[in-house]
């Protein structure tokens, strides 16, 4: 059996006045997703346990069939895996955003979606000044540039207690335009992190890359924002747990990282940006090709989440329509050529346009294919899912059900 999974990140939402009282999923013209819903089943699942923060790290683990309460150690270690960073037992990975702070408020958690070459130059400058031995003279800081604003700080050989489970940091994408003073790191190691964040301001203030960005009318990266710290997680390979060979197509390090840690093949798609301008058709083509060599092919699309963070209902609708046309459509056409098949469409978590932030709650999913009989739903959206009897309160139980085990 061949399985396809399509993840429109953060697509689940609330009814919007701007969309005539419909949710983006309901408002979008998505004939393929709706066909899938008619043929198969629509249900809902909860991918974020109440004790964890709603974000793609936790939610993706659930969606891929792993209980985050058992395996989750933090977001940054998952991204570090995708960046090829090896973490030893005493190493911590810490997510290092380049952000724009104005009037001491979080103006932009992406520093104007800074291009990777700009980001790399700035992170290297920060590494020269702030990298190396920490004040304790044991821990060493390494700044590793990533994609766009998403970089990593590795704290090597940190003695026990340097950071701990009680270290609290704030995802910057969930505090748009809010005063940052309320959201600085707290708990063990907070002084260390706050100090690095403060000192990064001086490194970046007069950097030529930032000067050039301002001259072009782009947002400068005014400082780093440290969050999502954790040690390396231990995950049993997907092939061992579920007996299937997987592939992951995503432009986002975090999601790739989860795939890589499960032993899936990482397939990089040219033109995939992790943003609204991504090449949807290329994603669809590569996913269809990947079916030949893998049992489970998972395509993740970040665009709906980004549209929500920007508060743009129209962009969210458009992203869903592109996903439907260029990814779900071609997969629905290609899958039956491989014999028995199934497809799952589900976001990881909710990202609401109202708050421009991630949210707790059930998300709608649709499954169709071999051995799945219709549960009488006419379209794929939140309202249809709400009326469904098929619900996974523990989201990680959806995967074994989908795989038919
Ligand atoms: Zn998001």
Description:
This protein is an alpha/beta fold and 405 residues long. The chain has 15 helices and 16 strands. It has helices at residues 24-27, 31-39, 56-63, 68-71, 76-82, 116-130, 190-205, 208-215, 238-242, 253-261, 280-290, 303-309, 313-334, 382-386, 398-402; strands at residues 2-8, 41-45, 92-102, 105-108, 132-133, 140-147, 150-156, 223-230, 246-249, 265-266, 296-301, 341-345, 350-352, 357-359, 363-369, 391-392. The protein has an 8-stranded mixed sheet, with helices on both faces. Strands 3, 4, 5, 6, 7 and 8 form a 6-stranded antiparallel sheet that branches. β13 and β14 (357-359) form a beta hairpin. The two termini are 12 Å apart. The mean pLDDT is 96. It binds zinc ion (ZN). Zinc ion (ZN) binds at residues 10, 173, 305, 309, 351, 358.
Layout of SSEs?
Layout: E1 2-8, H1 24-27, H2 31-39, E2 41-45, H3 56-63, H4 68-71, H5 76-82, E3 92-102, E4 105-108, H6 116-130, E5 132-133, E6 140-147, E7 150-156, H7 190-205, H8 208-215, E8 223-230, H9 238-242, E9 246-249, H10 253-261, E10 265-266, H11 280-290, E11 296-301, H12 303-309, H13 313-334, E12 341-345, E13 350-352, E14 357-359, E15 363-369, H14 382-386, E16 391-392, H15 398-402
Parallel strand pairs: 1-11, 1-12, 2-16, 9-10, 9-11
Antiparallel strand pairs: 2-15, 3-4, 3-7, 3-8, 5-6, 6-7, 12-15, 13-14
The structure holds zinc ion.
């Amino acid at each position: 059996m061949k399985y396809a999974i399509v993840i429109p990140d953060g697509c689940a939402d609330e009814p919007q006045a701007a969309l005539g009282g419909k949710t983006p999923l309901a408002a979008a013209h998505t004939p393929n997703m709706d066909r899938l819903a008619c043929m198969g089943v629509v249900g809902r699942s909860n991918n974020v346990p109440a004790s964890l923060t709603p974000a793609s790290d936790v939610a993706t683990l659930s969606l891929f069939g792993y209980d985050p309460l058992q395996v989750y150690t933090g977001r940054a270690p998952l991204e570090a895996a995708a960046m090829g960073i090896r973490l030893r037992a005493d190493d911590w990975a810490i997510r290092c955003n380049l952000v724009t702070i104005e009037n001491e408020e979080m103006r932009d958690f992406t520093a104007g979606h800074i291009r990777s070459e700009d980001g790399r130059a700035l992170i290297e400058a920060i590494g020269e000044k702030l990298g190396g031995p920490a004040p304790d003279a044991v821990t060493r800081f390494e700044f590793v540039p990533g994609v766009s604003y998403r970089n990593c700080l590795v704290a090597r050989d940190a003695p026990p207690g340097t950071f701990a489970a009680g270290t609290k940091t704030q995802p910057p994408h969930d505090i748009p335009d809010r005063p940052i003073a309320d959201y600085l790191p707290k708990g063990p190691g907070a002084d260390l992190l706050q100090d690095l964040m403060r000192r990064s301001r001086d490194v970046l203030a007069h950097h030529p890359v930032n000067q050039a960005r301002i001259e072009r009318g782009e947002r400068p990266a005014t400082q780093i924002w440290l969050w999502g710290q954790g040690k390396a997680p231990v995950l049993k390979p997907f092939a061992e747990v579920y007996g299937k060979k997987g592939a992951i197509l995503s432009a986002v390090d975090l999601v790739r990282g989860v795939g890589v840690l499960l032993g899936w093949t990482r397939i990089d798609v040219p033109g995939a940006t992790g943003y609204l301008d991504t090449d949807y058709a290329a994603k669809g083509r590569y996913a269809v090709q990947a079916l030949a060599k893998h049992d489970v092919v998972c395509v993740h699309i970040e665009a709906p989440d980004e549209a929500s963070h920007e508060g743009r209902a129209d962009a969210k609708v458009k992203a869903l329509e592109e996903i439907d046309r260029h990814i779900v459509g071609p997969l629905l056409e290609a899958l039956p050529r491989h014999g028995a098949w199934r497809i799952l469409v589900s976001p990881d978590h909710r990202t609401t346009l109202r708050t421009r932030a991630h949210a707790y709650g059930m998300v709608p999913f649709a499954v169709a294919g071999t051995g799945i009989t219709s549960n009488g739903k006419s379209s794929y959206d939140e309202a249809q899912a709400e009326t469904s009897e098929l619900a996974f309160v523990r989201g990680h139980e959806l995967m074994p059900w989908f795989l038919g085990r």
